[in-house]
Amino acid sequence: MARKHVNLGTAPDKRDLPQKTCAVCAKPFTWRRKWARDWDQVKVCSDRCRAAGTGS
Ligand SMILES: [Zn+2]
Question: What residue spans define the domains of the chain?
Answer without folding.
Answer: 15-52
